[in-house]
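[Discussion] Sanity-checking designs against the backbone

I'm trying to build intuition for which residues belong where. Below is a C-alpha cell string of 199 positions. I'd appreciate it if someone posts a full sequence so I can compare it with mine line by line.
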C-alpha cells in the first residue's frame, strides 16, 4: 500500500517543495471508521473552496469557486484537482508566496460522509464512482448536512469539470448562504482574515 500511496500522491508532491510549504507531504493511513470529508476555504490567486473526500487513503479533491450550496437549484462548478494526502484533513495555515497555491487556508467544514452512489441497484465504491463521473454522498458536517451529487460534465484529464448540486432533503435550505453567514474555521474559530493576522 505504501508504494501505491506514493504513486497516488506523485502529482501532489511534484507541485510542492517540502520544507518550504507548511502543507503535509502525506503517508498517514486512514484513521478507520466512517470516511471523512473536508471543505477548505483557500484565499489563493482567487478565493475558492476545496472539497475533499477520503477514499483509499487519499483525499479525492475538487476546487469549487463558490463553495457548496444548500439550495438544490444551484449548480456549482467543481474542477477536479490532484489527490491530496489524508493529513490534509487538518491543514490550516499560510502557504508562502512563490509556492504552489500560495495564500491562506482554513478548515471551513469537516466531518464524516457516507457514499450513497448506486448503479443499477448496486453500491459503487467511491473511487469507482469518481471514475464513472457520478457520485452521491451524504455529508455529516458542522455546517453542511445531507446529500450532494457530483457529476462530471467534461474537460480533459488535467482539468475535469464537474457540477456539485445539493440533493432535496432535510439539509436543503434555499435561504441559507453558509459561505457568508458562517465564514469561520470549524477547527480554530478564526476567519481567513484572522488567520493572516495570527501568522
Ligand atoms: Mn485550493
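Best answer:
Here's mine. Compare freely.
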Amino acid at each position: 500500500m505504501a508504494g501505491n500511496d506514493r504513486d497516488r500522491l506523485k502529482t501532489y508532491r511534484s507541485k510542492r517543495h517540502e520544507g518550504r510549504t507548511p502543507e503535509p507531504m502525506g503517508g498517514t493511513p486512514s484513521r478507520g471508521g466512517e470516511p471523512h470529508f473536508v471543505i477548505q476555504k483557500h484565499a489563493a490567486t482567487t478565493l475558492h473552496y476545496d472539497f475533499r473526500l477520503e477514499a483509499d487513503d487519499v483525499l479525492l479533491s475538487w476546487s469549487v469557486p463558490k463553495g457548496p450550496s444548500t439550495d438544490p437549484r444551484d449548480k456549482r462548478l467543481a474542477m477536479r484537482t490532484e489527490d491530496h494526502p489524508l493529513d490534509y484533513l487538518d491543514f490550516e495555515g499560510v502557504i508562502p508566496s512563490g509556492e504552489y497555491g500560495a495564500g491562506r487556508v482554513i478548515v471551513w467544514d469537516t466531518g464524516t460522509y457516507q457514499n450513497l452512489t448506486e448503479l443499477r441497484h448496486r453500491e459503487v465504491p467511491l473511487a469507482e464512482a469518481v471514475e464513472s463521473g457520478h457520485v452521491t454522498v451524504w455529508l455529516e458536517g458542522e455546517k453542511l448536512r445531507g446529500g450532494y451529487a457530483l457529476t462530471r460534465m467534461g474537460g480533459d484529464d488535467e482539468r475535469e469539470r464537474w457540477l456539485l448540486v445539493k440533493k432535496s432533503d432535510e439539509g436543503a435550505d434555499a435561504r441559507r448562504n453558509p459561505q457568508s453567514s458562517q465564514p469561520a474555521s470549524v477547527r480554530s474559530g478564526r476567519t481567513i482574515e484572522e488567520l493572516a493576522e495570527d501568522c
